[in-house]
Write a structure and sequence with these properties.
The protein is mainly α. It has one domain. The chain is built from four helices and no strands. Helix 1 runs antiparallel to helix 4, helix 2 runs antiparallel to helix 3 and helix 3 packs antiparallel against helix 4. It starts with 13 loop residues before the first helix and ends with a helix. May play a role in cell differentiation in the intestinal epithelium. It is found in: Membrane. This is Proteolipid protein 2. It is a multi-pass membrane protein. It comes from Danio rerio (Zebrafish).
Length: about 140
């Protein structure tokens, strides 16, 4: 019988859509910031690379081999939220005072990416909580 659960096809799962959105927004923010030669380009690049790595790990179903992956993913998402939020606010203030339009666009996409990373953080917290409840049931 065919398995039609969310785990059987990662590409169409909510996690894949969120990771794809994170990758796309970080890529757009990186391109906009690179075009303006603005500030803090490295933040969006680091989060872009981490999102691609996590996407590949989940797509290749290596998450069943790595027990610590939900926590790694949690720290990636929470640092992405904080890093992109703070860097985008600083760059937005810098761009508005100096009237750099591409830097403003990059900062706005960085803030959108920070929002998506925040949503991913909340989803990961829910996933970790469910994993802990399952492990407590098995141990009893």
């Amino acid at each position: 019988m065919a398995d039609t659960t969310e785990d059987s096809n990662f590409i169409f799962s909510r996690k894949a859509i969120v990771l794809t959105l994170e990758i796309a927004l970080c890529l757009i923010a990186t391109i906009c910031k690179a075009m303006s030669f603005g500030c803090y380009l490295w933040g969006s690049i680091v989060e872009l690379v981490w999102a691609i790595i996590i996407f590949i790990v989940y797509a290749m179903k290596l998450d069943v081999l790595l027990r610590f992956l939900p926590w790694t993913d949690f720290f990636r998402a929470i640092t992405g939220t904080l890093l992109l939020f703070i860097c985008s606010l600083v760059c937005l203030k810098f761009a508005v005072t100096n009237e750099f339009s591409m830097e403003i666009a990059g900062s706005v996409f960085g803030l959108l990416a920070a929002t998506v990373f925040g949503f991913d953080t909340l989803c990961i917290i829910k996933q970790i909580k469910e994993l802990n409840e399952e492990s407590n049931i098995i141990l009893i």
